[in-house]
């Protein structure tokens, strides 16, 4: 009887909804049209190749991906780039078990010239690539460090000598890699050398905890520091444009069309007076120069100083955020796992980044399941739209967390927005396509999930200006259709312009071969 009533109710509902046989036919045709839409056809293409990694990579590489929001500029360049710059700059390569780029003289014991190293000493050149990245890393191999974590973070010191003075090259490399990977926007962490005009005077200063006094001492130097930083990036961007042939392009295409946004940062393993000065400089830069779109804090979160000072750093960020309320924060938090640190250090990092510091995005967030009252924290992140930056290869290499152990599914189930990003693509020797591929093969994401992640990468980017979207996938009134009103709106919003570009690229991608 219940089944008969249910069927009768369904029939009545269908009759009321359709109204007539003609309406029912129209609804059927609409459903068929939706099934044959460009998006549906593209999703079918995706399903056809999802189990063939080579074909899947071809599909995903061609797919527009929007932005890469978790990116470190010096870690994005490949070891081959560093060795080429070392060659051009007259630097050396050390010959020990873990070769590094070093200053001269290159005829000193344990050093050779980087000049034409790939030709003159290909074995050392190959070992240098391994030492400057995660290539061929195997724990226990000759010269290898005991863990992927240690190998990863130690690479930065080995190539650090050559990064000074090569900002234009780093910018050009970042744009070139993004363009080849169909990424239109890169939000990358980088500090201008001018920052250290503010930081160096306090390197040996004791920390008494008085943030207001520390800020007052730093404030007189901020205008000169921000002006010098602006000049430095003006010159670096102009030189990158010259190298990549962008100056004559109207409109810009290829690498020249890639938009870069910068996050200034503090290094959390340094003394408190230095961290506070770096954070002050970072906030000031974000206020003074629209290219600096946000602030971050970096370095291994499991370092003893990082752990001991974590709560202090969050209070510093809270203090400065109150004075610079328009500056956005994306914070490395929860880049930890059980065994790397004691359980007590897994219980509060993400929460304090969100609740104390006011982070709008969380970088990594791997230890979320170990946080105190994790369900409530997840609910807050979902409600407040605090996105998590997911770096699958980095989490695997550094923490050994991958596959079913990764919390991406937990975030998705809770409704927390997420983006896929690279972290340090040069050190890890990957690209964003690789992270999309891992998201499919290891995390079970489908085409609709990837498309949503690409859009989210611009929705949650710190690009200035209002969003293109008045509501989910409903554009603002000015851009309900193309025309002068929309052109004017896009010209006034870097965010909306990037979102509009992604939509056009997705349309072209989905209109491709069936």
TrEMBL record:
Catalytic activity, EC: 3.5.4.4
Keywords: Hydrolase, Metal-binding, Signal, Zinc
Signal peptide start-end: 1-23
GO MF annotation: an example: hydrolase activity
Keyword Glycoprotein carried by entry: no
Keyword Signal: yes
Cofactor(s) named in the record: Zn(2+)
Family of the protein in this entry: Belongs to the metallo-dependent hydrolases superfamily. Adenosine and AMP deaminases family.
Entries under PANTHER family matching the protein: ADENOSINE DEAMINASE
Protein name (record): adenosine deaminase
Organism for this UniProt entry: Caulobacter rhizosphaerae
